[in-house]
Amino acid sequence: MSSTPAFKRLPRAVREQQMLDAAVRVFSRHGYHGASMDEVAERAGISKPMVYAYLGTKEELFVACLHREGTRMMEAIAGAAAPDLPADERLWRGLRAFFGFVGAHRDGWAVLYRQARAERAFADELAGMRTRIVEVVAGMLDHALRAEGREVAETDLEVVAYALVGATESLADWLADHPEADPEKTATRMMNVAWLGAAQLLRGARWR
Amino acid sequence: MSSTPAFKRLPRAVREQQMLDAAVRVFSRHGYHGASMDEVAERAGISKPMVYAYLGTKEELFVACLHREGTRMMEAIAGAAAPDLPADERLWRGLRAFFGFVGAHRDGWAVLYRQARAERAFADELAGMRTRIVEVVAGMLDHALRAEGREVAETDLEVVAYALVGATESLADWLADHPEADPEKTATRMMNVAWLGAAQLLRGARWR
Amino acid sequence: MSSTPAFKRLPRAVREQQMLDAAVRVFSRHGYHGASMDEVAERAGISKPMVYAYLGTKEELFVACLHREGTRMMEAIAGAAAPDLPADERLWRGLRAFFGFVGAHRDGWAVLYRQARAERAFADELAGMRTRIVEVVAGMLDHALRAEGREVAETDLEVVAYALVGATESLADWLADHPEADPEKTATRMMNVAWLGAAQLLRGARWR
Amino acid sequence: MSSTPAFKRLPRAVREQQMLDAAVRVFSRHGYHGASMDEVAERAGISKPMVYAYLGTKEELFVACLHREGTRMMEAIAGAAAPDLPADERLWRGLRAFFGFVGAHRDGWAVLYRQARAERAFADELAGMRTRIVEVVAGMLDHALRAEGREVAETDLEVVAYALVGATESLADWLADHPEADPEKTATRMMNVAWLGAAQLLRGARWR
DNA sequence: GATGAATGAGTTTTCATTCAT
DNA sequence: TATGAATGAAAACTCATTCAT
């Protein structure tokens, strides 16, 4: 009697990942408010008190999801955009990685993100993430500038970065809503807008 | 006995506006889910059943808010960007009007919009609004192109428009979160990014 | 100016009938509880306060419906079963009239009746109606008996009458649920059950 | 510290029965619509969410009551009417058991039944129960017939059975309304009406 | 006589969260 | 560690009923 049933008494870390998997799924499907802890627990194949014991309240659980997915995304981007490339090449690779990630996790990241934006409670977490992204983008731009011997006010850099991030988010959203769309192509379009600007485009210019 | 109590037995149209005012406020403060019909009614100085009688369920009420505020915004923009101006001037005026509106209704539009994006139920309403905006922007661009004797694939136009709208929304969001920021300045920055593109900016170019 | 709009200011009695028509319809469709005064008023083409002014509360309104329809039914039966006919002929005609009525008002009588039976509030009204029916039936039987020179305890008469009425109601219910069924045939069947049983009893037969 | 508090943390099965007991009582007292889930929970000595968790919505709860009580009644009848007895004896025992049951549960079965009849939502459940009863009764009659070497059209059997059931229900109702009445006596009376009528029919007699 | 405006009071239902075992 | 049992608190929605005009 009592050979251990292969799926019980897992180490804490593993259990937590299972729960997060379940939670991401449920939150994505029904949104933050529509999701119920019951369903999360059920999908994780575990009892509710366990979820509370491991990952805390619903709010904390959501933050944990956001954090894990966000980190994964950042890593994907960072891994793609090597710092020693020229600015436009880095931007392009970053964008491609980003849209690739969003495309591959259509039901994950974009939805969580949208949810987070709607709830005051997550403002801080989001602000942190966005700051990190903006920093990265602004860093790219700054790097490029310095390479050309120029200098630009920090605020301006930040605003450009913000706008780029915003435009990108928008297209990512659009991508999440259009299952048939191609991430690669979306990245290209974004690159064109971002890099050249509307005026250039109107004149027939194309990046690459 | 005598002078009008001023706030009882009002005609339907008036009450509806009062309710919408209250609803916009409450939804903005607590978000769609955090808002309770009780509070909406209370803030409107009326009983709950009236809200249901006039504006329907919570969902419908929210849509009504979205609709009213969205329409107001569109009108503000349309009123500013006269169709006979050159493309960049129109874009500029439109942006200025937009950021002006958002700045003036800091607790209104941007928050409702964020809320709407988080809930599947409002996807349709949103899609409609966005389509109208994108059409307007794409129209501007198209107009400018034809003036120069060029033609551009419709899809490309749409994507450019989408990205612009996204970037703008992002800055609007940022504006809503930064009470001290200046709408006019934000509009200018956005214009620079949009019109010139990052590459131009990096080279020191500035619109105007 | 001011030729009277043909459908306003009707005499009270007419208005009341219109309301009752509407009410019977609504109660039949949705049941007593499912029905709303709003719908009654709307269907009667009149405002709610009028309904209250003319026919009182929802409960009173329902009683009024019950009363009118019940009276109509009783009259239909009484009109059919002339007192100078032999007992079986009278019973037969009565049954035929009853099932005919129920069949013709499939959505009226039977449904109201079922509703009334479920609500304590209508017990009195119902008891009154049933008493009248039972009296009629018992009267028929008694008449037949005396014609044969017999006499039977009143209680027994009442019970037989009760059982007959119950069986009849049951078949009426069944008829209301089966739109394709033929009232005439149902009456015949009921007659067979009722008459052969009753006849034996009347002749003094007893089981055991 | 020590002896069992006896009424806390009970196993599900037990709690469910307690809830059903409470529900039957409350539904019987106030009717389906008059009953509130609050009262059911209170009377069961438990909080409302438990009721929902175990027995579902109000409608489902009512169906559960109906089902349990109906099954008990059927069992009482089936247990009384052994299949190897002569037809009249079986009918008699069945009737006696039925009236006995109704008499013993004056506030249970008959009231639930009346309620169920008033609500469209329960039509299916009721139809099922009635079908089972009618089948049993028709089976009895059929058995008796075959014993006498006769055969009767199925439809006729069904109608006779229906009428019997209806008459019986009616007397049961009457019994539920007359607390002083004697179930045994009521059964006897019903038997007289039913048997003398049915016996004639079984012998091939027809009115007209 | 007639009605649009208004509401008090109540209902069902859901959920995050926690004991007791 | 793990869970079935349990709940407090609230929220959306409905309806019979009545003023004030």
From TrEMBL, chains A, B, C, D:
Example of a GO biological process term: negative regulation of DNA-templated transcription
Alphabetical list of Gene3D superfamilies matching this protein: Tetracycline Repressor, domain 2
Key words of the record: DNA-binding, Transcription, Transcription regulation
Pfam assignment, any one: TetR_C_46
Tree of life domain: Bacteria
DNA damage is among the record's keywords: no
The organism of origin for this protein: Micromonospora zingiberis
Domain HTH tetR-type span(s) in chain numbering: 13-73
Name this protein carries in UniProt: TetR/AcrR family transcriptional regulator
Keyword Zinc on entry: no
SUPFAM superfamilies hit by this protein: Homeodomain-like, Tetracyclin repressor-like, C-terminal domain
Annotation: DNA-binding region: 36-55
GO molecular function, one term: transcription cis-regulatory region binding
